[in-house]
């Protein structure tokens, strides 16, 4: 057999290289359907994902070439109204974090701008409005649920991003009216990047500002603030559009307030803070920082939404790249032979690595989302940290997958009509939104150095030398050892750091602490992956999941083999066997790549509209080709130059 060929791989690729113009659930095998069932919330799939999957299959969500940035912004807002029509009760959607995250998971595939404005309107704006009306007799929100007005969220300032509790915008209690005066005291207190232009129609915002009562700073709260109406901007609200940024355009702006008067009911109140009639603040929380964190509590569900959006984008990029690899033919090793790209190990191994990671990301997201939905007051802080860790890991992996997938499509992947070129840059937005990944990991790492113990599995009775690299429990145990070793190094570095220099001590510990967080995320993903494989009822699906999980674990461990060998967790034979173990798993999985990405369940209509995902490519249009030939052969055609 020729060294370029795996047994059965070239034949399988050739059989499936002429992909139908549509694909997805309707044509899926039983194995693919079982994988889809496990990936997309099981029996709750239709309720959680069905609405949004069906929506992006409609003609209104197809690629629209030639639009200006302003037109693309307006298109995102018009699609937001279609989302609202499909959502049912918008208030119920804001409270249903599973459906809310799924909205991002599907809409991000076709419109990164829509994913952004939907996240702001439903989660940050409407969610905050509803969450902080509890016990206040409710709040009239019909103008926002009907989308007569679009909501936005103003927290981050030009001078204050990750240190938002130090923000400068003020809302001073007006003793004469009982309301508040919203003001931007310095240029650095301008709200940075909210979508506050006139695009999309009238808008209101919840604005984070320092509550001042008779000159006393009571900390930061949220205030419901109208920004614009049918006639334009509200007096005292100043908006300056920012330059274009990377990714799908959004109407990002700088926004400031010049002593804007707000009514008493503008203050969003709940148990974290209530202002009585004489201006006295009552709170169940003991500090201004805790009150502020409660006020912006929707940022946690926002992290789940952002990671879901990047997750959906990366799976779409991977699906397009895998389908293209089966239909794009190149010269083979023999004269005159044509083989599909997927026949080459150099090509399919990269896409299989990405596929294994995409499955791990998906199962981790489902597990973390379930934990957040079911969290209690006692485990809230730990669950919030897990959400933050997962958001960083998922969105970083999503970027790597989208970039790899785009590259594997060559020049065809550079054309937006092929559905993949915008995805890496849109993922960049998710990486930064709802907390910059590195910053939230630094916070998690600092908490986990002493406040966390890795979950070890049952102690194996099998001698180390007899434990094979194919064993998922063994590979999972090795990942725990890597996590524990990184934590131990961080603890030692912190203890031995320079006395009296907190920043110096943290700098000494930060590198192993961040490694601990990274490996912890991988280990949690592996646990969710192993659990999903165990739930598979179809034997073929279970085998594929186990093989994918094995590939994921082997790849994660391959850069730690020296440390594991030195610490006595691997033998020299194990280390030598790693490359062959990875090669063997890839060879076993390669013929099943289409089944694995078909399980991502992208709609037939979406795939049919993406040329390289449906057996075509840019430049294949017969009408253009035929017209050119006719004109060249016509006696009336101008002479060739």
Secondary structure blueprint with pairings:
Blueprint: H1 9-16, H2 30-39, H3 45-56, H4 69-87, H5 90-95, H6 97-110, H7 112-131, H8 142-145, E1 150-154, E2 170-173, E3 180-183, E4 191-192, E5 203-213, E6 216-226, E7 228-229, E8 232-233, E9 237-241, E10 253-257, E11 260-262, E12 274-275, E13 281-282, H9 288-295, H10 298-327, E14 329-331, E15 338-340, H11 345-373, H12 380-408, H13 423-432, H14 437-448, H15 472-495, H16 502-535, H17 539-557, H18 561-566, H19 572-589, H20 593-598, H21 604-608, H22 622-633
Parallel strand pairs: 1-5, 2-5
Antiparallel strand pairs: 2-3, 3-11, 4-10, 5-6, 7-8, 9-10, 12-13, 14-15
Mean pLDDT rating: 90
Total helical elements: 22
Tell me about the biggest sheet?
6 strands, mixed
Span between termini: 49 Å
Counted beta strands? 15
Strand content: 5-15%
Stretches with pLDDT under 50, minimum 5 residues: 1-10, 12-28, 623-641
Secondary-structure-based class equals alpha+beta
Short description:
It is built from 22 helices and 15 strands. With 641 residues, it is an alpha+beta fold. The strands form five sheets. Strands 1, 2, 3, 5, 6 and 11 form a six-stranded mixed β-sheet that branches. Strands 4-10-9 form a three-stranded antiparallel β-sheet, with no helix packed on it. The chain has a two-stranded antiparallel ribbon with strand order 7-8.
Can you tell me about this structure?
With 641 residues, the chain is of the alpha+beta class. Helices cover 52% and strands 10% of the residues. The protein contains 22 helices and 15 strands. Strands 1, 2, 3, 5, 6 and 11 form a six-stranded mixed β-sheet that branches. The longest helix is centred in the last third of the chain and has 34 residues, at 502-535. The two termini are 49 Å apart. Residues 1-10, 12-28 and 623-641 have low confidence and may be disordered.
């Amino acid at each position: 057999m020729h060294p370029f060929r795996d047994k059965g791989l070239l034949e399988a690729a050739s059989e499936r290289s002429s992909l139908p113009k549509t694909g997805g659930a309707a044509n899926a095998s039983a194995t693919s359907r079982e994988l889809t069932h496990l990936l997309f919330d099981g029996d709750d799939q239709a309720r959680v994902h069905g609405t949004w999957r069906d929506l992006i299959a409609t003609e209104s969500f197809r690629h629209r070439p030639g639009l200006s940035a302003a037109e693309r912004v307006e298109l995102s807002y018009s699609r937001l109204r279609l989302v609202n029509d499909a959502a049912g009760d918008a208030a119920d959607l804001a409270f249903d974090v599973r459906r809310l995250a799924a909205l991002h998971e599907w809409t991000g595939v076709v419109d990164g701008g829509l994913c952004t404005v939907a996240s702001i309107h439903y989660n940050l704006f409407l969610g905050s409005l509803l969450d902080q009306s509890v016990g206040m007799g409710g709040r009239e929100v019909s103008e926002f649920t009907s989308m007569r007005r679009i909501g936005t969220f103003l927290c981050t300032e030009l001078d204050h991003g990750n240190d938002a509790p130090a923000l400068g915008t003020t809302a001073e209690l007006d003793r004469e009216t009982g309301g508040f005066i919203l003001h931007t005291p310095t240029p650095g207190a301008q709200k940075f990047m909210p979508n506050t232009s006139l695009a999309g129609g009238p808008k209101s915002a919840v604005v984070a500002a320092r509550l001042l009562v008779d000159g006393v700073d009571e900390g930061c709260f949220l205030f419901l603030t109208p920004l614009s109406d049918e006639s334009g901007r509200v007096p005292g609200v100043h908006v300056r559009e920012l330059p274009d940024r990377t990714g799908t355009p959004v109407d990002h702006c700088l926004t400031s307030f010049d002593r804007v008067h707000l009514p008493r009911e503008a203050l969003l109140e709940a148990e974290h803070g209530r202002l009585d009639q004489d201006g006295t603040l009552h709170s169940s929380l003991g500090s201004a920082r805790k009150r502020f964190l409660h006020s912006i509590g929707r940022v946690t569900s926002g992290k789940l939404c952002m990671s879901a959006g990047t997750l959906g984008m990366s799976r779409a990029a991977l699906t397009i790249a895998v389908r293209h690899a089966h239909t794009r033919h190149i010269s083979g090793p023999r004269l005159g032979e044509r083989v599909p790209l997927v026949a080459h190990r150099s090509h399919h191994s990269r896409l299989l690595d990405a596929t294994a990671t995409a499955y791990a990301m998906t199962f981790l997201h489902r597990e973390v989302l379930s934990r957040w939905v079911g969290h209690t007051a006692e485990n809230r802080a730990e669950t919030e940290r897990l959400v933050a860790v997962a958001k960083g890991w998922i969105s970083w992996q999503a970027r790597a997958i989208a970039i790899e997938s785009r590259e594997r499509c060559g020049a065809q992947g550079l054309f937006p009509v092929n559905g993949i070129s915008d995805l890496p840059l849109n993922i960049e937005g998710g990486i930064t939104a709802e907390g910059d990944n590195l910053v939230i990991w630094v916070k998690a790492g600092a908490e986990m150095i002493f406040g966390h113990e890795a979950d070890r599995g049952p102690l194996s009775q099998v001698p180390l030398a007899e434990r094979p690299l194919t064993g998922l429990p063994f590979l999972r145990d090795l990942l725990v050892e890597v996590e524990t070793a990184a934590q131990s190094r961080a603890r030692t570095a912190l203890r031995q750091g320079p006395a009296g220099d907190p920043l110096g001590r943290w700098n000494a510990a930060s590198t192993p602490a961040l490694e601990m967080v990274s490996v912890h995320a991988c280990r949690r993903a592996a646990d969710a992956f192993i659990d999903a494989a165990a739930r598979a009822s179809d034997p073929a699906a279970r085998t594929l999941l186990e093989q994918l999980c094995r590939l994921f674990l082997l790849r994660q461990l391959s850069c730690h083999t020296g440390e594991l060998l030195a610490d006595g967790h691997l033998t020299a034979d194990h280390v030598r066997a790693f490359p062959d173990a990875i090669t063997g798993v890839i060879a076993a999985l390669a013929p099943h790549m289409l089944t694995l990405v078909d399980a991502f369940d992208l709609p037939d209509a979406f795939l049919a509209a993406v040329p390289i995902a449906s057996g075509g490519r840019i430049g294949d249009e017969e009408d253009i080709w035929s017209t050119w030939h006719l004109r060249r052969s016509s006696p009336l055609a101008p002479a060739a130059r």
